[in-house]
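Field: sequence (string)
Field: structure_tokens (string)

Example rows 1 and 2, in order.
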Amino acid sequence: FNRQQVIATTTMAAAAASNNNNSYEAFDLDTEESHLYFFALFHVARSALVTPGAESNQIAWIVHRHRSVARKMKMWLVFIAVGVCTGIVAFALATAVEMLTGFKFWLHSIIVKPTTEHPLDADFVAAYFAHLATCILYAGIAATLTAFVSPIAAGSGIPEVKSYLNGCAIPRVLDLITGAVKMVGLALSVSAGLAIGKEGPLVHTGAVLANVIGSLKFRSFKHQAQLSNFVSGGAAAGVAAAFGAPLGGVLFSLEEASTRFSLEGLWYNFACAMMSALTLTLCFALRSGHVFDINNIGGSGLI
């Protein structure tokens, strides 16, 4: 090959890689946060509105977007919604694990059928193989969903969320299907007796919910930096739902997951984590019937 052919081949390969959906890209997380900048934009927009035009209208819309009280209220609503949804998903996960495990032991009791007169006549061998078959079935369904529906859902999910918050655009890592496969697989895997926990999957699921809710048609939240703030709150809500510790969720998001973190986002994340732990506690209280008994509604705290 000559020099021109090599350059043409390299250019075509780079273009093909950039168009590939499986390629990893970087997010643009830089935003203008200078108050002097917005103050100057405000005066430019006010003077430009004397002669209306497309450019002046655009500048006025930018100033309004960054200075609107309604935008602050929408941010609070998004973070609260993420926390509530994460708590509900955590409650659904705990309920599903209890139901699947209960079915497994109910099957054991049907097969064993012990009697008080002859307790050793129970069919323990058949019960053992029924237990083994049930665990293999649960684990097989979880592995099949992960392998063929959403391979990105494999693992705990914390490294993927940290990569997203650090600016790495991993394809389909925060899709709704990925979160659904993660939760279904976690419930089946825990019920199968595998040695896994729920912290990582709940962090990933909270981030998925934050990305889905934050990606709705909010005109003010189109910048990737704002979506990253929502994902950071979702990660905090996941830790809060896993351990009942809102402050622990905020510290996890602040110290371990996020690279960029603002003081304003700290309060948003705390509200999101508090709503997640509170929602999970209230769901368990409603199920147990101790809604108005403050001593029996759950074991969640601040830490």
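Row 2 begins here:
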Amino acid sequence: MASSKGPNQKIRYRTCLRNTIYDALRNRAGWTETENDVDWDFVWADIPWMKEHFDSLRLEENQRVNHFRNHYELTRKDLMVKNLKRMKRQLEKEGKTSEASKYDFFPVTFILPNDYNIFVEEFKRQPNSTWIAKPIGKAQGRGIFLFNDLKDLREWKKANEQRNTQQYGKKEEEVEAYIAQRYIENPYLIGGKKFDLRIYALVTSYAPLTVWLYRSGFARFSNMRFSMLKDNLGDVAIHLTNVAIQKQAANYDKDQGCKWELKSMKLFLISKHGLEAANNLMHDIQMLILRSLLAVQKVMMNDKHCFELYGYDVMIDNDLKAWLIEVNASPSLTADTSQDYQLKVFKSQFYISAQNLVGWNARRHV
């Protein structure tokens, strides 16, 4: 890490994580770990720690923490869609129709149960389409299911309401919210298998917006050949690329994993479609990330003490169009294979070093 700091300086860091972030932190010269919840220079925290401690902290000039206060404006599935739709409407209202038209990178989405009646109307307009339902606050593929028949959703809605009422005493309007999203039925396939891209973006400020893109992301593959047959809609190993799901597949290879480095993916696309098409796709992905950040810029509580590492999940269809699936506030930095470990340790070192690029100066502990 390039630094103009003196040789006696020590930076005190705290993290509850034990993955590649921890390894990157403890291997940095001049950095020392602390368990103190208050006296530190740099914290890489999980969401529960933020909820418990952040509002009670009075941060000093030197302190940095890895989440913005309301990071969920982009990372909660329903709020992400609301903010993207709001940004598009605002641009249209301002007469910026050309820019508004470029906010077409997320699938048609409804929030359930609030938008249930509106969703039903849309479903009936295209009765043969397939939809994917996702709980707004869960990760790693939990609670996700596909459907192409309204009776499947009605049965889910009834069961969900009954389950929540029995277990938690919740009223109907308080049951767990889901999003229903038009399923991308024509994903780009390699070897007959579906994949998505995990792209990392580091935001160090929202005012002005300052973002660093990490070039070495990766593709996450399904272990199963893709199929849109109705009998296969319930097989999450075919349709979801989450590593947590794929690890459960009988043919999962724990040594090889199910990831492919982004640079290898780009070389494959160049070989199939040419350099210009591959570059255009990568540019579209960069602009997708930038426009999503612009959509939440005005609602985000900017704080000079905060930064955020976002994990973008992007899918490509067979027309080489990029689709934003979701954005993660705490993207997994746990490695599955030795190659994955090297990739993520290097990436973690990059994120930590990026703090110096924006002029962060920690205090001295001699």
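free_text_note (row 2): Residues 275-297 form the longest helix (23 residues).
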